[in-house]
Amino acid sequence: MLSKLLIAWCLMALCVTIHAMGLIAAFRLMKTRVTAVEGRFWRATWMLIRAAGWTLLLHLLQIALWAFNYAWNGAMPDLATAFYFSAVTYTTTGYGDVVLPEEWRLVGGVEALTGILMCGLSTGMFFAIFSRIFGINDKHDPTS
After folding, report:
1. Whole-prediction pTM value?
2. Cα–Cα distance for residue pair 10/16, rounded to 1 Å
3. Backbone angles phi, psi at 38, to 5 degrees
4. pLDDT > 60? residue 2
5. How many domains, in total, are found in the chain?
6. How far apart are CA 38 and CA 58, in angstroms?
7. H or E element, residue 13
8. Cβ contacts of 12 within 8 Å, gap of 6 or more
9. Which sign does the torsion angle of CA 92, 94, 98, 100 carry?
10. For 107-133, what is the HEC assignment?
C-alpha cells in the first residue's frame, strides 16, 4: 500500500507542476493583453474563453497522466477505461460504474483530492483574470 501511495504522491506533485507551469504561462501571456480588453465585453469574453480552453487542456493532460498510470500498472483493463475512470475521479463525479482494484482504491482518492485542488487553482486564475479585465482593485477597501 505504501508503494501505491508513493506513486499517488508523485502523480499529485507532477499535476501541481503541470498546472503551475500552465497557469504561469497563461498569466504571462494575458498580462500583456489585458489592457487591450478592459471595458470591451466581447474581447474580454474571448480572453476568458481562451483561458477556459487552456485550463481545460491542462486538466485533461493531468487526467491522462493518471489514466496512463492506471493502465500501465494494470489497475484498469485498458486505456479507454482508465481515461474514463480518471476523468470521473479527477472531477469528483464518481459514477461508481468502474472501480479500482482494492489495492489501488486509496490512489483514486488521492486523484480526486488532486482534482479538487487543481480546479481550485483554475478558479483562482479565472478570478484573477476577471478582476484584472474589469478593473477590480484588490487594494480597494470597501469599508472606507
Report:
1. 0.85
2. 10
3. -55, 125
4. yes
5. 1
6. 26
7. helix 2-31
8. 110, 113, 114
9. positive
10. HHHHHHHHHHHHHHHHHHHHHHHHHHH
Q: Is residue 113 part of a domain?
A: yes
Listed in sequence order, the residues at least 6 apart from 71 whose beta carbon sits closer than 8 Å to its beta carbon are: 78, 79, 82
pLDDT of residue 107: 96
CATH number at residue 71: 1.10.287
Mean pLDDT along residues 64-70: 98
Contact status, residue 30 vs residue 51, Cβ threshold 8 Å: yes
Q: What angle do CA 8, 9, 13 make, to 5 degrees?
A: 115
- Alpha carbon distance 17, 42 (integer Å): 32
Position of cell 482534482?
115
| For range 67-89, the mean pLDDT | 97
> Tell me, what DSSP letter sits at residue 140?
-
Q: Residue 30's pLDDT band (boundaries 50, 70, 90)?
A: confident
Residue 139 in domain: no
User: What is the radius of gyration, based on Cα positions, of the chain?
Assistant: 18
pLDDT above 70: percentage of residues in the chain? 88
Q: Which domain holds residue 66?
A: 2-133
Please state, in angstroms and rounded to a whole number, the distance separating the CA atoms of residues 25 and 29. Answer: 6
